[in-house]
Queue: 4 jobs
Job 1
Amino acid sequence: MHKGVVNEKANPFDLFELTEYFKSVIDRNTSKGDSFSLGKIFQELREIKTEEEIALMRRSISITCKGFISMMQNIKPGMTEYQVQAYGEYEFKKYGAETEGYPSICGSRENSTILHYNTNRRTLNDSDLILLDMGAEYHGYSADVTRTIPVNGKFTADQKLIYELVLKAQNAGITACVAGNEFSSPHKAAVAVLSEGLVKLGIIKDPSDYDTYYMTGTSHYLGLDVHDVGTRGPLRSGTVITVEPGIYIAENSDCDPKWWNIGVRIEDDILITENGPVNLSAQAPKNVEEIELLHGQAAVMNK
Ligand code: GLY
Ligand code: MN
Ligand code: MN
């Protein structure tokens, strides 16, 4: 443990003392002090945020929401995916975020159905949807927000049916973000809504086939890393998790072609508290009417 570390006897705050201190904490908390146990300690430490950490996360998330509002205001047919991305990331930088928490995902039409797409080169057409999954990083803490919006400012009837279903599933997932609930509760709540809705729309016949179009989990911890570590035990006050259900219908899927190339995800960052869930990314609009209303409104930077 002390390899190469010199004990400067006159200095009680040298690296030697620090490693001694770490060792004593580890020995107190674990039977063997091995690296696996150290991992567990960090899971606990990073799962529950201090007040200071929550303040930083509120900042990174609110900066991110400003980016989303700007993208909703400025998007139009003929732009490229990377130009929409630029409107969002401009706001991140303008409000002091040092970087992005992960490479921005800006996938339009067929690209919205590709889970980790981040090429962001396609040109947007009228009546395309675009899925925007982006997060500013501020002082080390990342946001992780997704909105799916129509390029021309108006959802088609079919896009709206899928969108409203994902939104309903997401709201059910957020409602399940209650201290004491299992980590999997938001996922189970979202899947119940999605499977019933996909059957009603005739996209699947058997509710258990929901995973043809929703093949991911619903939540992960958020913090110093976009996919932060945690115990995955029951939800605890002071924890921030994402709730991010989606429906991804690739071309040539086994359903009516009218649904092909529709990919929708809605993702918010939820703080678990003793008084219920707090949506830290609520400033980014997600109701159909709000999104349609913002479209075309001149952004501040264009005035
Ligand atoms: N942006 C990565 C994720 O949503 O998990
Ligand atoms: Mn995301
Ligand atoms: Mn996420």
Job 2
Amino acid sequence: MKKLLKLILMAMVIAAFAACCSKKDNENTGNVTGQDTSLDDIKAKGELVLGLDDAFPPMGFKDDNQEIVGFDIDVAREVCKRMGVELVIQPISWDAIKFELSTKNIDCIWNGMTYNEERAEAMTLSIPYMKNTQVAIVLAASEVNTLADLAGKTVVIQNGSTASDAIDANEGFKDSLKELVKVDDNVQALLDLKVSGSDAVVMDEVVARYYMEKEAGTYKILKETLADEDYVVGFRKGEEALCTEVGKYLKEMAEDGTLAQISETWMGEDLTTVE
Ligand code: GLN
């Protein structure tokens, strides 16, 4: 019985991904004619505005020269080059991603954004391009070694992030915590950890690994993970022409090795999953 349930669940997840950029998303297109002009609009405008939380290394973040760089930025820049448009980068608050898209301040969210059902309802999502897990990171000197050790302790997460989904999905863990604090971004969350304002941060593994290396000896990542995730690019609901075009170049770049090469530059290995 359990096996059957698992199979049904798996089929549902596959169906959800198969529906990426699918026609039925067209319903909510803002265009008065009801037609999806998203790709033509971007080409006419000559630019694609990418929205990101600029404190999310190595996907998209401000480097020491205050320049926004990262894996997603390099991939998006190459996709834009192949599409014949300019890439424009627009930092936004992660908690406002749906609002920023709907008000057309940005054309896409491209920043290690995790697939979830709520986002699939509200946006048109690309094919998945990378896997991620949600992990708990603590100070290296901490006595905390397991999720159970965090009972009665304070955990910080980024507001609007899927770290919240991961914690909700682990009820026992959530109930065991003294407090769950939400801050604007992961830089702030790690700062809280360092000044002993909290005991752990739950965040994307790819970001946690970046800081493990950058600030060697400062942190440790707990072995138990909280959730397995897929990264996707988010577009306005119904803009599947643009979504499909971006997906087409992602596939092309997987085939010609560009994606693997960009991943190796930023992550030291190929973590991409586009086929
Ligand atoms: N992967 C997390 C999410 O999608 C965090 C992404 C981010 O802050 N850029 O919510």
Job 3
Amino acid sequence: MSANRGQWSSRIGFIFAAAGSAIGLGNIWRFPYVVGENGGAAFVILYLGFVALIGLPYMFGELALGRVAQRNPVGSIDAIKPRSRWRWAGILGVLTGVGILSFYGVIAGWTVGYIHKMLTNNPGGFEQFVADPWASLFLYALFTLLTISIVYNGIEGGIERWAKILMPILFVLLIILIIYSNSLSGSGGGLSFYLNPDFSKITGSTVLAALGQAFFSLSLGMGLMITYGSYLSKQENLVTSGIYIGIFDTMIAFMAGLIIFPAIFAIKGNMEAIDASLRSGPGLIFKVFPEIFSQMPGGIFVGVLFFILLSVAALTSTISLLEVEVAYLIDEKGARRKTIVWAAAAVTFFVGIPSAVSQGGSDFFTNFGLIPERFAGPDFLSQMSFIFGDLALALGAFLLSIFIGWVWGADKAADEIARNSPFFAKTRSVWMFMIRYFIPLVIFLILLNVFGIFN
Ligand code: PFF
């Protein structure tokens, strides 16, 4: 069976695809905001440290597990430890993929809707826009179809091919927008707000939140890198590829801040001019930004480019999320890709319907409130984002790190990572210590922090 699972055809194709998964909505609206609020450059340095010392070593483990087993997350765990309860860690990963895709796809749909809104010079009215259940569902369906059309064509002909097209587009759009944003008068204040190092703003809980952000941003904790690693050839150097993915992901997140803060300061003068609830997340992107664009010279055009950028970033992430489910169904259930892609996407779409109508469309889902307010907003979408984007991802990363370090064995995992990586071979004992003790411990703290224990 493994012969026709598909494989990346080139190293750069794999790196683009995996970086495409990592670079997404999380980078563009969350990272810059967290940096701005938590000590600017001081936080960036800290974040880089986390990516290098915790995110990447953990990522090597996921990639190695996938490559050695040549299977999806569940199959990979089964291949190492047949018929054990550990397979539930893989199942959790696949379900987390469904959960994240279900709400992420809804937001991705809005980004496409906003391309249209900007084109028709209609930047306002976010509340009315998302409260219209049919518009949200239509856009969500459209984005799902786009995602299907790529995953349908498999690894090389679909995901890799499109990653090679979309990632350069994303990069060029970012550069254009950075240049534009920084050429506006008054934009300089934004840069200093973004980058002035202020170590006093860094607390234990912001540190852990940053770590959670690093995992979400690098697409870690749900077996995505196991899945993408399963299409890697044995010749590939996992360590350098992983480092590239980490660098691209962090660089793009950092660059997004170079668009956002200069633009805000040029138009608004400072952050306080923006209502606190709108300084991050959907409010920042869909309300503040369109308003700012409409006040800039040539702003409508820039707005169109900005929402194309977001759509592209989201698309390379949604295809990766769908691929985890699809790989599971192909490997474990013997399904054919071209049929199962539709079924998997349909089920996920169905799971996302409550999220799509939870922004005013349906009272019930708008005020769902199963999870207490101190963890997440009452609407269904925010609740899904908390359960799957924060909680399940941290739990998954914890279980997978224990599985890799203790059940599979740090030694065997290190053997797999060390193939074609002389540098890693020399430092493997450090990695082995990290994956067994340090990484599970840190992830455990992130998990506690998700529950607000340190607040
Ligand atoms: N890394 C993506 C982002 O930052 O937007 C989100 C994501 C994609 C998380 C794929 C997990 C995943 F498997």
Job 4
Amino acid sequence: MTTIRLAHLYPEYLNIYADRGNIAVLTRRAELRGHSLAIEAVSVGDALRPGEHDLVYIGGGQDREQTLVAPDLAAKSDALHEIAAGGAALLAVCGGYQLLGRGYRGRDGSEMLGVGLFPHETVAGERRLIGDVLLDCELEPGLRRTVAGFENHAGRTKLDAGAEPLGRVIAGFGNDGESGFEGCRVGRALGTYLHGPLLPRNPWLADLLLSFAIAHASGSEPMPLEPLPDRLEAVAHDVAAARARSRGGRF
Ligand code: GLN
């Protein structure tokens, strides 16, 4: 029985597309295994202290909200680097994913300095990249799994050469609509454009994050969690995957 300490960054600013649903999934799946989540909202002006969290979550937002939080997030940059280097898990979605890179230039030209945790840069394009997405991921050696989700972003994110994406795009746009990459991974930190929300349709990803967080909390190596039936989750995944495939397989 582990208490997983989760920091939810800027919940009142970055919360579009039901990002809170991701936290509900993490909470429930932890509880079903006898663990619990202690959720702390960390917002503008609040201290983020390394060593106090096992999992960090930052959601999506529109350019306006991103502009409001970006200076505060940049001020938390050292703490976030220390938290990630210490082996805590992190999930960043869409607007949060953009700001955890080196920076984001929004649609109106405003430059937002990022945290530099993910090796990428983002610039908003004219056309929004919207629709269902299907990814091919290999986050554990030899274990290939799909992620189904929904994207809606103006930002084009360019990964540095050699950076590890979260997955390869089977259908949809992904980071920039041309590289075939989606998201980014640095150790136990995962970033993605996919929301909708993401974790209800991809429970294996929720469990991977929980296993990273439990390992951090207990000072052990990540262990697979006891499987759950996940019948409804599989249907939700398959419906979204079929919708994404019907877009015509961009890559
Ligand atoms: N404002 C950002 C963009 O349009 C992020 C959008 C989002 O979080 N959905 O690219």
